[in-house]
Amino acid sequence: MEPEHEALLFHxxxxxxxxxxxxxxxxxxxxxxxxxxxxxxxxxxxxxFQSEGFQITLAYLVDIFEALNAVNLKLQGKSINxxxxxxxxxxxxxxLDLWKCRVQQGNAASFRNLDTALADSNLxxxxxxxxxxxxxxxxxxxxxxxxxxxxxxxxxxxxxxPFQCEVADVADEVQEEFLELKFTLQxxxxxxxxxxxxxxxxxxxxxxxxxxxxxxxxxxxIHISM
Length: 226
Hints:
This protein is an all-alpha fold. It is 63% helix and 0% strand. It is built from twelve helices and no strands.
């Protein structure tokens, strides 16, 4: 049938991203799959697969798993630490709230495949409620898995950029060394390096403040993706 792909993908628990990729491939080959089911005289499978409700639900699942895949990829690689992980997860949870609000208003623009599948029609009330419930449950699961995600993390303000902090923002025992760092180094030095490189480089020069950064951020400089 000369499609772009020559095979369906299968899910494996060993590979984090395979479930999203599997659904995406199935959706891209939905016409070919329908023809195959018909040729195999699988009438029940064919009719259910071709139903509008199933196709629209599948489109939503493809979109949400695509978003989860994107989050997973952002949590991997070099120069990844607990601060960048925290930012990525907070951003995704905020998106879940935005998507839920839009769907409640009947707006599916946040979901590319779903929006295309709907064409000029609107989300029916049942599907709208299913998506809203799913997004709420997904956020609740993130909160369960990351119970401290909404902590203020005031210590990270200094780690992110010491040149935007005041002496009162740091612990008493490192305030003098903090002032030396702030008024000796140039902001350009900080902007030209990633966080790990900056703090590791100046650890011998400013040991107290660098060590405090490590403690406050729960070993922030340990790469989670090896």
